[in-house]
């Protein structure tokens, strides 16, 4: 593992749902894992990202529509993604879209999609 | 994907670090991905978990020592795990241990390790 970063993954989650910190963390992890285990995704790219230290950045939007717009952009650009829908067992209504994982891919590719979205602090 | 759950993963994170929600989410995702991409881990088990819907639970402890004790228990029991150490680029001191991902494995196996630890809400 080295410390230069060519690749990253962004996970964009919904601030408007007022998820608890633990709920948010589980949803973001779900998005990240979902992109990785999806059988259609590029395993060579995933392993390059992994060997760099698999950097990931959590970002915030305020609506479901913004998540769906990001999904559409990924489709158009051919970038791997995974949309998380919560079953609604604990905090949320059934089948609530909570976040989207995008990548991993080259920084410049990811920034075309999520470069203007604010960090979730 | 069906809705019966034989497998789960738990991610145990440190409450004493006062991480922001976005930081916590990124660290938890890192732990989850780390266990999955680690080359020594059981890929058949991971895929069983994935096809169930890859359930994950976020738990909270209040010290580094508790994370290290969990790591030791996983070693003794032969359960897969991944300890996350933060580089300290943003919020934390350099090389801070933030969390541990445990499993995925059968519920009863995971519960032996983390069954008494409280949920992170």
In short:
The first copy, chain A, has 121 residues and is of the alpha+beta class. Chain A is built from four helices and four strands; from the N terminus they run E-H-H-E-H-E-E-H. Chains A and B meet through helix 1, helix 2 and strand 2 of A and helix 1, helix 2 and strand 2 of B.
Helix content of chain A: 40-55%
User: Could you give the order of the helices and strands of chain A?
Assistant: EHHEHEEH
**Mind telling me the CATH class of chain A?**
Alpha Beta
Low-confidence stretches of chain A are: none
Beta fraction of chain A: 25-35%
The largest contact between protein chains, plus residue counts on each side, is: A-B, 33 and 33 residues
Q: In terms of quaternary structure, what is this?
A: homodimer
Radius of gyration of chain A: 14 Å
What is the mean pLDDT of chain A? 93
Envelope shape of chain A:
globular
The structural domain count of chain A equals 1
Number of helices of chain A: 4
How many strand segments of chain A? Answer: 4
CATH superfamily of chain A: Bit1
Structural class of chain A: alpha+beta
Descriptive account of the structure:
The structure is a homodimer of 121-residue chains. The first copy, chain A, has four helices and four strands; from the N terminus they run βααβαββα. The longest helix of chain A has 17 residues. A four-stranded mixed β-sheet of chain A has the order 2-1-4-3, sandwiched between helices. By secondary structure, chain A is an alpha+beta fold. The mean pLDDT of chain A is 93. The first copy, chain A, has one domain: Bit1, CATH 3.40.1490. The radius of gyration of chain A is 14 Å and the shape is globular. In chain A, 40% of the residues lie in helices and 26% in strands.
């Amino acid at each position: 593992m080295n410390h230069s970063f060519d690749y990253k993954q962004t996970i964009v989650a919904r601030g408007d749902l007022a998820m608890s910190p633990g709920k948010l963390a589980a949803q973001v992890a779900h998005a990240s894992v979902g992109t990785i285990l999806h059988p259609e995704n590029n395993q060579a790219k995933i392993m390059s990202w992994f060997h760099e230290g698999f950097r990931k950045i959590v970002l915030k939007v305020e609506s479901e529509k913004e998540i769906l717009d990001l999904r559409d952009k990924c489709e158009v650009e051919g970038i791997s993604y995974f949309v998380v829908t919560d079953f609604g067992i604990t905090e949320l209504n059934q089948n609530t879209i909570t976040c989207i994982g995008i990548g991993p891919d080259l920084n410049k590719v990811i920034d075309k999609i999520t470069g203007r979205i604010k960090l979730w602090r």
